[in-house]
Amino acid sequence: MNGVDRKAATIIVILLFVSCASPKIAHFVNLEAKESESDTMVILTISEPVQYKDIKLENPPCILISFPDKKVFSSEEDVVIVNKGAIKRIKNEYYQSEGENRRQLELVIVELVQDLPYKISHSGSSIIIRIENPKQSELLAIEEKAKIGGDLQAKARDPLADSGYLIGPGDILNIEVWNHPDVSRDVPVDYRGEIKLPPVRRMSVMAFTTYQLEEELTKFLSKYLIDPIVFVTVKEFNSQRIIALGEITTGMYTLKRKTSLVEFLGQIGGPTGNANVSKIKLIKKDGEISIHDLNELIGDPKKSGEVLVSAGDTVYVPPLEMSRVSVLGDVKTPKMIIVKGKLTLVEAVTEAGGFTENAVRSSVIVLRGELGAMKGYRVNMARIFKKGDIGLNIELEPGDIVYVPRSFIADIERFLRDITLPLTWYFWYLK
User: Fold this and answer.
1) Three-state SS for 306?
2) d(CA 119, CA 34)
3) Which residues contact 79 (CB under 8 A, 6 or more apart)?
4) Which domains does the chain have, with CATH numbers?
5) DSSP string of 32-43, one letter each residue
6) How does residue 387 score in pLDDT terms, banded at 50, 70 and 90?
7) In 3-state terms, the chain is what percent helix, strand and coil (to 5)?
8) Which of the chain's termini has less CB crowding within 10 Å, N or C?
9) Is the four-CA dihedral 139, 140, 146, 152 of positive or negative sign?
């Protein structure tokens, strides 16, 4: 074998070694749920056939699918609400994220409406779960039980069903079984929301109140003890945490019951005098952001009751200084206006004293964006006053600049280039 052949053979051996040593990787392609009269079918499609392991839990009723032999990556949502046939929802549990599209699946959890028989098979690269649908009479019975409070699990899974503290991962529970010190102990709730309490072994307590958990433990322990009496208290509240930032008493707070945004702000002392209460941000655990006006919520109790805070949320109350609009050019009193609520274009010009005699009302420019990357919008304010075209009376955003010119501005792009430097000096001087 000459030198070239020997080098090529060495490269091939190295490549083979690397390919054998590399972890086996597959990708989650699609999830689909189909309902028929007799069963509900879940189809999990992977990029290639993979070995899977399925486990059925009774409390709560669900099917867990794991992939022991391959890394399966996915960019799918964490939770998919299905509410179809036998399925309540499907949840994807991930290991630590490796990037936006590199999240390794740990488990696919198919949560059922009740404990139901199922069959699982595979076809090509798809895993197919067929779950027997509950009978109509059984569904009605479940609904009736939930109405009268008989179905504890249904209540426990709904955070709005009970006003008590909802147990979650990280909490420490004190469980006392009367006359049974060998069973009584402090128990941590693990990251899955489960506890270990011999002889019960593992038990899911996620989203239970202490009262509901007492009843469930009484039921379980009755298999081993005669008429057990169980008391449960939360020794350490660690799961239902919420963060408050901005113009408010900042910190991390624990929720002990169902709490609206208005109630939460009141509980921690309310916003400061420098708070922009019309632009309060509620950032949910999944990243969804909503903006709320505190005064509107206080004035509408029904709407206020619908805006709830929950574990993992962040509440941000911005300062008024971040919500300013500048009115410049041919107005009687050029100024910066602090926005305390909604501010329209007409209101801003009026607060700046109105137009001068030389103002060209048909070419008012609204500048929006950061200095150096602004966009300009022409508004014909003459039409607002002469023809009542209120559609042109736009709502201004924090940071907007309203410029009233003395002559018609034909080229907005050129105007932006010419005005950037003067505006930079103007705002520098104000600081």
Assistant:
1) helix
2) 15
3) 89, 90, 91, 92
4) 25-134 (2.60.40.3500), 147-236 (3.30.1950.10), 241-320 (3.10.560.10), 323-430 (3.10.560.10)
5) EEEE-SSEEEEE
6) confident
7) 25, 35, 40
8) C
9) negative
